[in-house]
Amino acid sequence: MDLPPLSKEQLSTVLQSSRSPIELYNTLVEYEGEACLMSTTDSDVSELLSLFYSTFFFAHLLTDQIYEARAMTQRMPQGLSQNDPSLQNCLTLLRAVWQRKYESIYKILRELPWPELLRPAVESYETYFQEKTLKEVSHAYEAIRPATAANYLGLDTAAAEQGDPAVIQKFTAVGWVWDESTRLLHPKPIPMAPEKDTRLYDEMSQIMALVGKHGG
C-alpha cells in the first residue's frame, strides 16, 4: 500500500503509530527516496527535511545501525546538513558514537540544543545507550572502579569515586557487588535477552509517540 506524501503531519502520524524503533525505521526508509527529491530552497521544505533526517538518524541509532547511519548522513543534501543546526548535532553525535567517546555522547545528548520535536527521540536514545553500555560493561570486566563504571553511563564520576550510595546503587540494583574494602565494583553479566530488548523498544515507542502530539 502506498504511503501518503511526506509532510510534517504525516511524519507525526508515523511517529505516533510506530510500535517500535524498527517499525519507525522501516517506514522512514520508504520515505527516503521522496525526501531526496525535495528542494531545499524552500524554508518550509528545509524544516521538514531537517525533521525527517534527524528522526531517521535516531531511528538508525535506536536500532543499532551505526554503519547505516553513517551512510545515510552521506546521502542527505549536503547544503542542508552543513547549515542545519539539528543535523549538525546529529553528525557530532555520530562521530562520538563511532569513536565510542562515552563522556562526549552524554554531553552531546544532554547539552546541545535539540529541537523540542526531536527531544523525545534524543532522550530515548540516551536510555537505550545506557542500557546497552551497561550490558556490554557487565560482560567486559570482572572488577571495575566506580568512577570508570560511572563514566560509561554518564553518571557523576566524582561522586562514584567517593562511593556515593546513590551511584553505587545504580549498579548493585542489577546484581553487581560493591566491595567496600577494595573500593571496587564486581559486575554480574547481564543477559542480552531478546525479551528485554522488546520491552525497551516498547517503552521507547511510547516516548516516540509523544513527538506526534507536537506535530502539525
UniProtKB/TrEMBL annotation:
Pfam family, one: CSN8_PSD8_EIF3K
GO biological process, one term: protein deneddylation
Superkingdom: Eukaryota
Record-annotated CSN8/PSMD8/EIF3K domain positions: 48-194
Main location: cytoplasm
Species assigned in the record: Aspergillus nomiae NRRL (strain ATCC 15546 / NRRL 13137 / CBS 260.88 / M93)
GO CC aspect terms: COP9 signalosome; cytoplasm
InterPro entries for the chain: COP9_CSN8 (IPR033205), CSN8_PSD8_EIF3K (IPR033464)
Keyword Nucleus among record annotations: yes
Protein name: COP9 signalosome complex subunit 8
Record's subcellular location: Cytoplasm; Nucleus
Keyword hit for DNA repair: no
The entry's keywords: Cytoplasm, Nucleus, Signalosome
